[in-house]
Amino acid sequence: MKKKKVLVTGGAGFIGGNFVQYMVDKYPQYNIYNLDLLTYAGDLTKHSAIEAKDNYHFIKADIADRMVMIPIFEKEKFDYVVHFAAESHVDRSITDPEIFIRTNVLGTQVLLNAVKQMGVTKFVHVSTDEVYGELDFDPSTFFTEETPIQPNSPYSASKASSDLLVRAYHETYGLPMNITRCSNNYGPYHFPEKLIPLTISRVLNDQKVPVYGDGKNIRDWLHVLDHCVAIDLVLHEGVNGEVYNVGGHNERTNLEVVQTIINALGKSEDLIEFVEDRLGHDKRYAIDPTKLEGLGWRPTYSFETGIAQTIQWYLDNKEWWQQIISGEYQSYFEKQYRL
């Protein structure tokens, strides 16, 4: 029997990388294709344990380059596409919005054209709760799939634009798709510029940890492995054309997250340094995942168990994040794939 082919875009990133590993291990009967441009946040060292497996394949390509993407689709004839590839760091979007539009909007449109031309069984577009804008601090309010889209940063605006393109291709061309919108992820292989790994690495080095504003902004934290299970479920059982929110039921203020890590590592909260707030900083995100839970999904990690596991992972894998911070990881592709 011919193996089904699953294209994962952005599979050298944080969430996409965890998903690639999850799929390669869970579905030996599938061929998993990791397509990534290997920008600054793309890291292939995380795949050293699977790169020799028969069902894992890597393609270096730019999703926004239609002259490259169309031939790839024509050659491989993918059955499924799971689209993670995106610029995702809000701070970077504030200083340089253009690259976010190119990758997140144009890149998604190029993929959609390729999918429409070649046909796939399912296109899953991985998005973010940030497209909904912000909630106030009322704990009874949540984002649902019916919440209007009101993005507040160039990053979230670019993701909202790509969401709308995916919806339009479904409505206009009948493209089989689902959109998932997740809360803040954390876990193994999180790039060190993000809050949790940044805090862990700085605390371990006895460096100051910057906290925006008063630290009271609230996020709902979702362990990346719970997210991978959710996307797998949507890929195989999601109702065509539907949006599914993926949340962890783990709301914490940014300050609480930082304090939890500092205390777990036995360091002083004097390391906390409050800095000028981010422009357009949303107050609170919180997701109601009832619709996805109707398919049978539940998060398995509480924040307490998840953050303990994550901290231990960073303690056990110092070499990985230290070479990310130093930039050494960027030579890995050259060594592994070009020599």
From TrEMBL:
The keyword NAD applies. It holds the Pfam family GDP_Man_Dehyd. InterPro entries: dTDP_Gluc_deHydtase (IPR005888), NAD(P)-bd_dom (IPR016040), NAD(P)-bd_dom_sf (IPR036291). One of its GO terms (molecular function) is dTDP-glucose 4,6-dehydratase activity. Keywords: Lyase, NAD. It catalyses: dTDP-alpha-D-glucose = dTDP-4-dehydro-6-deoxy-alpha-D-glucose + H2O. This is dTDP-glucose 4,6-dehydratase. It comes from Peribacillus saganii. The lineage of its organism: Bacteria, Bacillati, Bacillota, Bacilli, Bacillales.
